[in-house]
């Protein structure tokens, strides 16, 4: 997206790296996904993938649109104001969707009609997601976006399935959670063990390597010059 908008120089090797990383990520997700046992599960899986696609698109647009603001404001301020606006949008969206029981049942079939109830077992996981995977992660993402290209900033997101695979392997190795292969009950909560599809991680690393080595130096040096000018004004 950055190259198509003229924000970064077009580089064939970098485009190849993006395609290889995407292919490796797609292989990991597609070949390790469990088969759907019903039509409802298939619909939910397709809807989940579409929501994830919009999530990735939203993150990419956030990185692109915040570039200009980062030239003027500190990264923590850009992140904070983005979260304030996002909170208002999410509250309005949640309230509107909650007016439809059918939509709420589709989004949360396990809620049993009580969509505002948070189980005690989910409190720690929810707190971790809010603090670590959302606030801190986006603060670091915005900070990195100030000094490197948008392609490299968002490129590291392809490491998510690789990280998930490594975490799953460690959890199963330490027997902290049951493996789905050792449980006969389809409704039981379990983790899918790593499989041959996870070899797509090699494509992820190769593609990310090509993205890193083709990072445009002029973008980095320009940001550094702006920082040095700002520091000189502060000293003066």
From TrEMBL:
Transmembrane segment boundaries: 15-34, 46-65, 72-96, 116-141, 153-174, 194-212
Keywords: Membrane, Transmembrane, Transmembrane helix
Signal peptide feature range: none
Highest taxon in the source lineage: Eukaryota
Protein name stated in the entry: EamA domain-containing protein
Organism: Octactis speculum
């Amino acid at each position: 997206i950055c190259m198509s908008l003229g924000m970064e120089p077009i580089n064939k090797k970098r485009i190849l790296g993006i395609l290889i990383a995407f292919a490796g990520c797609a292989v990991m997700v597609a070949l390790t996904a469990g088969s759907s046992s019903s039509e409802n599960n298939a619909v939910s899986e397709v809807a989940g993938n579409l929501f994830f696609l919009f999530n990735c698109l939203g993150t990419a647009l956030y990185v692109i649109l915040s570039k200009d603001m980062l030239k003027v404001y500190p990264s923590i301020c850009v992140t904070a104001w983005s979260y304030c606006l996002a909170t208002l949008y999410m509250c309005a969206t949640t309230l509107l969707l909650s007016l439809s029981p059918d939509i709420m049942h589709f989004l949360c079939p396990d809620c049993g009609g009580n969509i505002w109830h948070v189980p005690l077992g989910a409190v720690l996981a929810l707190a971790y997601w809010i603090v670590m995977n959302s606030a801190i992660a986006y603060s670091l993402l915005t900070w990195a976006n100030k000094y490197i290209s948008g392609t490299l900033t968002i490129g590291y997101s392809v490491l998510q399935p690789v990280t998930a695979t490594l975490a799953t392997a460690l959890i199963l190795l330490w027997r902290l959670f049951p493996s789905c292969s050792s449980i006969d009950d389809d409704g039981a909560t379990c983790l899918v063990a790593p499989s041959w599809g996870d070899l797509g991680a090699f494509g992820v690393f190769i593609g990310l390597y090509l993205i890193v080595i083709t990072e445009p130096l002029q973008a980095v040096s320009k940001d550094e010059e702006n920082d040095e000018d700002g520091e000189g004004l502060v000293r003066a």
